[in-house]
């Protein structure tokens, strides 16, 4: 079904008389800008985790880079206000965001991939951002409504761990999120928290695209034998119990750490690897889920 364009009379780049606008008029204009930006974004994917330290941002960056490498226009919205790691992982942390009449310009990582993050706006990267919920909500609103994303096929939204202000704000502002990807590691504690993320998504009527098990064993660099550092198979088991798709596992690869610190998404490495193939399969699952058959058909079929 063709998307309905927001009414032109509701969309304004800015309030021409902000000093005399009422609160209601300002709210209407902000909503108009938001709808205008969202009209140009075909698919919105949330990447979540129930707890920290599971490699969620790594998954977000490499999923987005894999989609871009297949010819899609992709944006990464770093919604982790307090710990924005995306700029460093994309190698753009020293680039400055510029503004113009059309809004803030996201930073281009490479052809097909753009990013916006609080880490690109803060003048002091070591300064703690001490904000309550309403301020974080306003920041995420500006990341969507005031950033000139242009036409995107996918907006990958990297969220902080848990089920608090930021995922609630994204769900409230976007309303038609295509789906959520839940990142976990095999340990029981991580799986317990990932269940909460799945139930959070269901509560807000956000389709769950599936669970990804990250850090799922590694190959010994000397003999090639697989080592299960954190156990394996927990993500698949949780997916079965929660009746959501299992999107596969991603092994530990020491090169991943080197690539992240160097600011280069792992999937752009020309050398083939099991981890690169895992991200490519994840990207293909997202593409399949967002095709015309719809999310519900994908979830039912997996």
Account of the 3D structure:
By secondary structure, the protein is α/β, with parallel strands linked by helices. It has a single domain (43-301), classed as P-loop containing nucleotide triphosphate hydrolases (Rossmann fold, 3-Layer(aba) Sandwich). It is 38% helix and 18% strand. The chain contains 10 helices and 12 strands. The protein has an 8-stranded mixed beta sheet, sandwiched between helices. It has a two-stranded antiparallel ribbon with strand order 3-4. It has a two-stranded antiparallel ribbon with strand order 10-11. Helix 6 packs parallel to helix 7 (234-242). The two termini are 24 Å apart.
- The average pLDDT is 87
CATH architectural designation: 3-Layer(aba) Sandwich
CATH topology: Rossmann fold
Quantity of strands, as a count: 12
CATH class label:
Alpha Beta
Percent of residues in helices comes to 25-40%
Task: Please list the strands of the largest sheet in the order they lie side by side.
Answer: 5-6-2-7-1-8-9-12
Rg over CA atoms: 19 Å
Residue fraction in strands = 15-25%
Order of helices and strands: HEHEHEEEEHEHEHEEEHEHHH
The shape, in one word, is: globular
Q: How many discrete domains? A: 1
Q: Which structural category do the helix and sheet elements fall into?
A: alpha/beta
CATH evolutionary superfamily: P-loop containing nucleotide triphosphate hydrolases
Task: Please describe the biggest sheet, giving its number of strands, its sense, and whether it closes into a barrel.
Answer: 8 strands, mixed
Please mark out the parts with pLDDT under 50 across 5 or more consecutive residues, or reply none: 7-16
Total helices: the number is: 10
How far apart the termini lie comes to 24 Å
């Amino acid at each position: 079904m063709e998307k309905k364009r927001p009414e032109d009379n509701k969309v304004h780049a800015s309030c021409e008389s902000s000093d005399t606008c009422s609160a209601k008029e300002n709210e209407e204009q902000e909503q108009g800008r938001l709808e205008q930006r969202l009209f140009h974004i075909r698919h919105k994917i949330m990447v979540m985790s129930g707890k920290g330290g599971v490699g969620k941002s790594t998954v977000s960056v490499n999923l987005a880079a894999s989609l871009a490498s297949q010819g899609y226009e992709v944006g990464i919205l770093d919604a982790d206000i307090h710990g924005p790691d995306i700029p460093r992982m994309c190698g753009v942390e020293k680039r400055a965001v510029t503004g113009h009449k059309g809004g803030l310009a996201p930073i281009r990582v490479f052809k097909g991939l753009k990013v916006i993050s609080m880490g690109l706006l803060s003048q002091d990267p070591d300064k703690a951002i001490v904000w309550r919920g309403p301020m974080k909500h306003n920041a995420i609103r500006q990341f969507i409504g005031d950033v000139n994303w242009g036409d995107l096929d996918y907006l990958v939204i990297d969220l902080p761990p848990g089920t608090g202000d930021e995922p609630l704000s994204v769900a409230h502002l976007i309303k038609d999120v295509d789906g959520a990807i839940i990142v976990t590691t095999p340990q029981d504690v991580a799986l317990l928290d990932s269940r909460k993320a799945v139930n959070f998504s269901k509560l807000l009527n956000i389709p769950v695209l599936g669970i990804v098990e990250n850090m799922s064993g590694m190959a010994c660099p000397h003999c090639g034998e697989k080592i299960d550092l954190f156990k394996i198979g927990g993500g698949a088991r949780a997916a079965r119990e929660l009746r959501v798709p299992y999107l596969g596992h991603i092994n530990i690869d020491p090169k991943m750490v080197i690539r992240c610190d160097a600011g280069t998404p792992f999937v752009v490495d020309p050398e083939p690897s099991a981890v690169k193939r895992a991200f490519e399969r994840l990207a293909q699952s997202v593409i399949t889920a967002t095709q015309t058959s719809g999310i519900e058909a994908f979830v039912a079929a997996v």
